[in-house]
Design goal:
It contains 5 helices and no strands. It is mainly α and 132 residues long. The longest helix is centred in the first third of the chain and has 52 residues. The chain is rod-shaped.
Length: 132
Amino acid sequence: MNWETIGGVLGAVAVFISLSYLALQIKSNTASMVVRSRQSVANENRDWIRAFHSSNLEHFTRVMSDYPNMPFKARSDFAVSCHDLVLFYQSAQTMHEAGTLPDANQEPYRVWVAAVLCTPGGGNFWAEWKPS
């Protein structure tokens, strides 16, 4: 064997090792990104629930059923909560479409948001505020 052949073989081995290491790093980074995405959605959900529970729950549930007849401040507070909820769901749906949030995690969020928007108050909110 001459030195050129030995150098070529060593170069090929070095490239193979480098590409293998890079593949492992990408796989690790992808797994980490999925975990962070799921944690982000869970944190947003938790924050919404905390904000919901820190406000007047009885007031919120009354607005869900009697939205048009409630005072402006009550409708406004309800609209803010619904906006937060819809934006939360938008981020969850984006992660789901990107493949970082599985169906089993996304579906309960979808059902929960739909349940709020299907109430008379949620329907009135959506009619007033939905994107065009």
